[in-house]
Amino acid sequence: MAANAPAKLGYRTTALEALRGADLRGKVAVVTGEHRKRPWRVAGRGAATGGNSGIGLETCRALAHAGADVILCSRSVEAGERAAAELQGLEQGKLTVKQLDLSDLMGTNHFGHFYLTQLLLPKMNVQGTPGRIIAVASIAHAMVKGLPLEDLNCQTRTYYPWLSYAHSKLANVLFVTELARQLEKEGSAVKAFSVHPGVINTNLHRHKRVSSFCGMLFGPLMKTVPQGAATTIYAATAPELEQDSGAYLALCKVGRASKAGRDSELAKAFWRKSEELLEAALARAGLSS
User: Fold this and answer.
1) Do β-strands 28-31 and 69-74 pair in parallel, antiparallel, or remain unpaired?
2) Lesser CB count within 10 Å: N end or C end of the chain?
3) What keywords are annotated for this sequence in UniProt (predicted)?
């Protein structure tokens, strides 16, 4: 452990402290973002972010600092380049900006990353070396007891932003639950984790009404951006997690997902539904094989 690392990781740990001296030279990290406006719908565009701001950028900073070659994904290449410029001279690894707008095809909080994972996994598996897939979920996943599998896109029910956000975060947890099961069954060296970053003062709260609400509700409990990225970095680098694939992490340790988040049958059903909707979306976009 590095000399400047805290004796115990916890609520106020920063991303750089969560590294604990990890050497990531020779590793490649792809950092994407989430959908901020309508976080569930498969169709339609919204304000998608990536590694160019908030905890995404802080994650890039920490991984590059440890020597990883980081691919910073951003909907806007210009915004990504500006963000990369902020990190120049601070990183040991190579930093590359790539344009990525998952919301062009499907809602970014789940379906875009579901598709991206399917594209990347064959390359990760063929290497035969340990790798990790991390989904940034939220404690908000515990606000709902299940998923409306027959109407995930609010085609016949009313769209409520916070309810849809909770559904999307439960989707992140279930995605990791089933992905980890499949990877273990295949004997893959790739592990998967979902993480709760905490309530963070980021651009996500840039709207005055949302920021005011979060400030009143959480106040001093809100984390800084470096603290908010800590659990993601822990998930990416902690050697003690090697036997915990599929775990839900919070406060830089293994936590406990909600009952719905631990429902393996729901995870399987949601995976099948995701494949069905993905196939339909790809066909509409002219991308099906």
Assistant:
1) parallel
2) C
3) Oxidoreductase
